[in-house]
Specification:
Blueprint: H1 2-14, E1 40-48, H2 58-74, E2 78-83, H3 92-95, H4 100-109, E3 113-115, H5 141-149, E4 154-155, E5 159-161, E6 173-174, E7 176-181, E8 184-192, E9 208-210, H6 213-226, E10 231-237, H7 259-266, E11 274-276, E12 283-288, E13 291-296, E14 302-311, E15 314-325, E16 340-341, E17 344-345, H8 350-367, E18 370-375, H9 388-400, E19 406-410, E20 421-424, H10 425-431, E21 438-444, H11 445-456, E22 463-466, E23 469-475, E24 478-484, E25 496-502, H12 503-506, E26 519-521, H13 527-538, E27 540-542, E28 555-556
Parallel strand pairs: 1-2, 2-3, 3-4, 4-6, 8-10, 10-11, 11-13, 18-27, 19-25, 23-28
Antiparallel strand pairs: 1-14, 5-9, 7-8, 12-13, 14-15, 16-17, 18-20, 19-22, 21-25, 21-26, 23-24
Helix pairs in contact: 4-8, 9-13
Amino acid sequence: MRLWLIALLTACASTPPVPDYPPLEEVPSLAEPEPAAPRRVTISVVGTNDVHGHFERLPLFGGILRNLRGAREADGGAVVLLDGGDMWQGTLASNLDEGAAMVRAFGALGYDAVTIGNHEFDYGPLGDSATPRAPTDDPRGALLARVSEARFPVLGAAFLDAASGEPVRWEGVRRAVMLEKAGVKIGVIGVSTEETLTTTIAANVRDLRMAPLAETITALSASLRAEGASLVLVAAHAGGHCREFDDPDDLSSCNHDEEVFELARALQPGVVEVIVAGHTHRGVAHRVNGIAILESFALGRAFGRADLVLEDGRLVETRIHPPRFFCPAEEEAMECPPGEYEGAPVEADQVVAEIANAASAMAAEREAESMNVRFTTEMWRHYVNESPLGNFLADLVLEARPRADVAVINAGGIRASFDEGPLTYGELYETFPFDNRFATVRMTVAQAKEILRFHLLRDDGALCMAGLRVEARCEGDALAITIRDRRGRALRDDRTITIATSDYLATTPVFEGLPEGAVVLEESEPIREAIADRLRRRSGDIDPARFYDASRPRFALPTPRPVRCAPASP
């Protein structure tokens, strides 16, 4: 019995049960798990600039944005919509309510931020006057009223109070804003060209000065990065000019010394990913110093786009698209086929269309008014050089102020040519949209020569002139100038002349340094209305060839502008 029990216990001890192990390939690994695929997000940055009150194509733009936002939503990304400034000034439809309808349209389009351009200051105080007339008038009254109505941030980081040197504190205007799109924090900074204070009515900005743009952007970008921004974008009313858009890294067609390119080169790597530019009314879709720069011409004709691809919050790719035109330049927006965008038909945005149609209806009757004249061919303009249209308008200004010796207007204020055929008030308004008033300036011929010499050595907008003729010639490396009256007689340097011009031009650096009382600003109707009155009195056909004779120009120059005189060879 005892032997049997011992044997049984021994047998049990030597044959333990076999566990039901899983097959080897099913055993969990003790190694680190495979990392999850990186989160990939595309942020499409869309930019416009210098719309200048042109509503015509905004409904189509709304349809394009709807398609693009749908595409980004489907792939988990997002769209950031920015504007590079000069939203309103430029059309009767926009100017009748001092930009209010344009602000509503931008709100309906879903802009994420816009920057202040130089022409945002043009309306001056609220109401009819474009400049302060009473001590209580706020020179930024119209601008700040529009800011208070905006459903989007309005940015102006570079404006400083001239007295204190501190950034301005205008209610509703911000220096920068933080957005969050598709889980990505995006900082946006808004700045304006350092030319801002000399390219708008001086009376509305004389208490301001501009901060250096690169320093301003660098400091604000550091703050935004510290708050967690993965991307920093800039809306800059400062521009450039390129002619070819096939390769964003080919800068051979670009003017390298223009402001936005200099700005991009002044920024350290990693400060900014995209600049939405403006001001020059030209095209840019290029990479400069690692920064994508988008500028899309002007007048609401086109937009720019850059797709920023991030993986786990880190930028890994930037795809820059050429400027995309809504319509061929020769077609009106109402006749332009919408086409497709992002693989879907474009349907005009009805809310934007209602805003645009209401603004246009208010202006339609006035725009259709006949000016009683007809041009036998195109009355063309030129920005840098003398043109038939510049001379023609200067003649009309001198007719309106016949006691002046000479009339001078700036070509930069002439925004479009007159087409062949009858002229309407709407076309006149689009060509001469600014509400500048008359000013008179008294100076000696010697002072006028110094102003002209300074002007001719630069490549900014031409001075269009009536009443006198200018002959410039090189004497060695110096530019000598003779001014002649209508009979061809040279004027003595000590003679005093009276110049009829605009309040804008009279208060720019062009006429700086004159004695007190030399410049008189008039309480008058806008110059455009005086021109309209003169046109109605003329009536009939007008031949543009009468106003520019290349063999006998009003400005006879030794070289194209900017004039360069080389020293005589030894």
